[in-house]
TrEMBL record:
This is Barstar (barnase inhibitor) domain-containing protein. Gene3D superfamilies: Barstar-like. Belongs to the barstar family. SUPFAM superfamilies: Barstar-related. Residues 96-182 form the Barstar (barnase inhibitor) domain. InterPro entries: Barstar, Barstar-like_sf. The lineage of its organism: Bacteria, Bacillati, Actinomycetota, Actinomycetes, Streptosporangiales. Coiled coil: none annotated. It comes from Nocardiopsis rhodophaea. It comes from the Bacteria.
Length: 186
């Protein structure tokens, strides 16, 4: 999961970004303490959390930055396998997207939205995916898809579309120093 904090300047905006990123809209925490309790009870907490815009956020909201660090430190104590990064740019991130839980095209789009930090307006279709990767977000330096064979078996059309669109994106950005690498693993 990638969360861009560069536009957040208050603890309230931070809470909104966390709620959006962790997809907890059905339960709306009113404070970071409530969010902390929600994260502690999560059945399937994220294995990777990448915060971008960290330097800007830390300068604009030092209290929120300290509270977020404390919250994430607690998460890492409960889940030592979790990977957490704080950086200024997505081009410094290497992320793994686990496809093994995908059971439908809708699940896949929800997962891509969350893991690649697509905006709330993301249309959950392949045209919207193209629009997102070509103009709305900056992709991480490396994207590693695991559980690819499961995806090909479960939703073969969506697996083909995802790979075709990413191949097209990589072909169009060939030679760009910020072009991501993409790998597909069983």
């Amino acid at each position: 999961m990638i969360l861009d904090l560069s536009d957040e300047s208050t603890p309230h905006e931070l809470l909104h970004a966390l709620t959006r990123g962790f997809q907890t809209r059905s339960i709306r925490p009113r404070s970071l303490a409530e969010f902390r309790a929600l994260l502690a009870k999560a059945a399937a907490p994220p294995q990777e959390i990448h915060f971008t815009g960290w330097g800007e956020f830390r300068a604009q909201c030092p209290v929120g930055a300290r509270e977020l660090r404390a919250l994430i430190d607690e998460h890492r104590e409960r889940h030592p396998e979790a990977i957490v990064t704080y950086t200024d740019s997505p081009t410094e991130i290497r992320t793994t997207i686990d496809l093994s839980g995908v059971t439908s095209g809708r699940d896949l789009h929800r997962l891509l939205k969350r893991e690649l930090d697509f905006p709330d307006m993301y249309g959950m279709n392949w045209d919207a995916f193209w629009d997102a990767i070509t103009g709305l977000v900056q992709l991480p330096a490396a994207i590693r898809f695991v559980g690819w064979r499961h995806l090909e078996t479960t939703v073969p059309r969506d697996a083909r579309m995802l790979r075709r669109i990413l191949d097209e994106y990589l072909a169009r950005t060939a030679g760009d120093p910020e072009q991501p690498t993409v790998s597909y693993e069983e």
